[in-house]
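Query form — protein Helicase with zinc finger 2, transcriptional coactivator

QUESTION: What is the three-dimensional structure of this chain?
INPUT:
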Amino acid sequence: GYCCHQENEITYTLKPVQHQCQCTVLLCKAKDGSKWRPISKRPAFPIPSKYKVCWHFKENFGCTVHKNR
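ANSWER: The structure tokens for Helicase with zinc finger 2, transcriptional coactivator are given below.
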């Protein structure tokens, strides 16, 4: 199996090791890319209806539009 390892604030890599994380992050990557990015934290029960993504997030700066909302 594979488990994710956080490299930077929003960059993850997959390692071929036993699964060790808490399964709380949904990751994605571009078709030809190698960087895995979090889509968002998993929605908590009882409202697991949507994932929300901020498109203004910059590595090491956070959201450049919404700040810490």
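ADDITIONAL NOTE: The mean pLDDT is 73.
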